[in-house]
Amino acid sequence: MPSSADEIRDWLRLMHTTGVGPEFARKLLTAFGLPAQIFAQSARALATVVPARLAAALLAQPDEPFEALAARTAAWAAEPGNHFLTLADPDYPPALLDLADPPPVLYAKGQVARLACPSVAIVGSRHATPQGLANAEAFARALGGTGLTVASGLALGIDAAAHAGALGTAGSTAAAVGTGLDIVYPGRHRALAQRIATDGVLLSEFPLGTPALSHHFPRRNRLIAALCRGTLVVEAAAQSGSLITARLAAELGREVFAIPGSIHSPLAKGCHQLLKQGAKLVETAQDIFEELRWAAGEAPCAPPARLMPLRPNLARPGHEGPASDDTLLRALGYDPVSVDQLCEQTGVPAAQMQRRLLALELDGAVTRLPGGLYQRTTQI
Questions:
Q1: Which InterPro entries does the UniProt record give (predicted)?
Q2: How far apart are CA 143 and CA 255, in angstroms?
């Protein structure tokens, strides 16, 4: 992760430049390297990659509020257990690379290695029934007991029950939130958040000081969906935000599970809707294990693979460069291919494969296509 306050400031400056989102950030990183190298370019050079107005904005002198935020973030990142993660870091969650717009910067608090572990999301209504809360906690305890990390969103109701059930198990829990990590929302979950930061991990893409705003939570939901192999919806109304998480999971090729309920219950409507759309009906945790082909006793989490530099000039001094990717490029060929197919052909583990593909994508050697497919764009 960034080793100095200057590196943190540069990443924040990139992401806080008005108009620069994940897409433009990746283009700039691909073209020029680490943020410090981006800011060393001329406006003319930057304008070959982004619109001229963004090139000018990138080179504008940051204001005092930004400098205060950068200093505050560097101080926060220096505290034990706090992590400022970027696309160039080995602890960046590999599953998030399946997103069309993986956040270039993430904030984590706690056991950050859990973000690379096999996970299942448990989500549902904030106004859950007592039975729904009991089901969420029981499923979380069973899933976590076999080494799967249980992810959710720290909300009232089902989310809180899922976190509570997974705490203390082998897999523990991960909470993706819609605020800065210096804010706990809802406030009544402060003690729960502290327990998660000790035994599991809290995750956010929002800068410190970011309050709880309604449009932040769909972005939080996409992190939950991407982190996990599958998403279990316990109780949900017909218009529940949990259905957003389930839809995003399905779009990413993850499994979607739902617990059925009474046809008279409004909190079963969302689950029944998902079941009609092809979600897997589950009655016990064993139903999930069988669908995911997960067996108790499997190693819950391998140490995260070292992240290959995004491109040669993104390697920090003293870091070793990546081994030749000729074998991977040959396996890619020029036809679209999935990550699973590449793993099968090369024997490279999925987490390491995701990182190598990101390095090649940002170096212009491969292109990511819709549906999670990749295609080679360069000769060996």
A1: DprA, DprA_WH, DrpA_SLOG, WH-like_DNA-bd_sf
A2: 15
> Across-strand partners of 203?
108, 176
Q: DSSP H helical segments within the chain, as ranges?
A: 5-15, 22-32, 35-39, 43-46, 52-59, 64-77, 130-145, 158-166, 190-199, 216-227, 242-251, 269-276, 285-292, 326-332, 339-346, 350-362
Residues 179 and 245 grouped into a single domain: yes
Phi, psi of 153 (to 5 degrees): -115, 15
Work out how many domains the chain is built from and give that number. 3
| Statement to judge: residues 127 and 163 lie in one domain | yes
63 and 133 in a single domain? The answer is: no
Residues with pLDDT less than 70, the chain: 1-3, 296-326, 351, 355, 359, 362-363, 370-371, 379-380
For residues 84 and 104, give the distance between their C-alpha atoms in angstroms, rounded to a whole number: 11
User: Could you report the per-residue pLDDT of 47-69, keeping only the tens digit for each?
Assistant: 999 999 999 999 999 999 999 99
Question: What is the predicted pLDDT for the residue at 353?
Answer: 78
pLDDT at 370: 66
65 and 133 both lie in a single domain: no
Range of the domain at 230: 112-292
Given a contact cutoff of 8 angstroms between Cβ atoms, the answer to whether 146 and 298 are in contact is: yes
pLDDT at residue 3 in the model: 60
Give the CA angle between residues 81, 82, 87 to the nearest 5°: 125
Contact 91, 85 (CB under 8 A): yes
Identify whether residues 3 and 55 lie together within a single domain.
yes
- The tokens describing 83, both together, are 């992590």
Considering the domain boundaries, does residue 170 fall inside one? yes
